[in-house]
Amino acid sequence: MIESFENYTETANSYDNIRNCIGLDIITNNIHKKLSDVVMLDLACGTGNYSKYFFDKVKHLTCLDGNDQCLQNCKKKINNSSNVNFVLQNLSNKLEFEDNQFDVIIFNQVLHHLVIHNDDTKYDVIIHLIKELNRILKDDGVIIMNYTTNDQQKYSYWWSQLIPNIVDTIDYKFLSKDSVSELFHNNIQNCELQFYPVLDETLMD
User: Fold this and answer.
1) Residue 31 burial by CB count (10 A; 0-12/13-18/19+): exposed, middle or buried?
2) 43-61 tens-digit pLDDT
3) Three-point CA angle 114, 120, 121, nearest 5°
4) What are the start-end ranges of the E strands in 60-198?
5) Beta strand residue intervals within 82-195, DSSP E
6) Hey, how many other C-beta atoms are within 10 angstroms of the C-beta on 145?
7) Which of 7, 118, 124, 178 has the fewest C-beta atoms lying within 10 Å of its C-beta?
8) pTM higher than 0.85, yes or no?
């Protein structure tokens, strides 16, 4: 599924050269318990930039990704720590976790990968995933996600103005703040959302 947007088997080994780990302060500031007590899921962990930061701070970390090469690179960064496990799984399937398992779920720059078709079904995978995250999250848990909005995709990257036709072609994959809010409120009862801009940090070099 994610491979339809980019072939991460090929790009996994060069991914860290251009992608930065941003918003760590926002993540840590929104975890309302001691990190050493936190059971965390790094969902679609990629090559493990965020996992590397958190694995020796939390009680337990699960790293999940749909690409085996990305997951192998993640394992190398974490050095087989005893409090970490790795799961290879596609996000369009039922997640292989118990109900109420995680205190914190982090989910970084993945949302646009889940919009596959530009039609009435384009949000189906996201809706499925939101319901699954709600199932596996503890009642007092938090989901912390960073993503690129459609306006950011068009106007915030230096290269967007160089390839406007391509940017317009994939615009449907990038959700507005209002669309994200609607999807979560419609699929998680009593959902509370907070939005934070990530300032003075560069996602891509």
Assistant:
1) buried
2) 999 999 999 999 999 999 9
3) 35
4) 60-65, 84-88, 102-108, 137-146
5) 84-88, 102-108, 137-146
6) 18
7) 178
8) yes
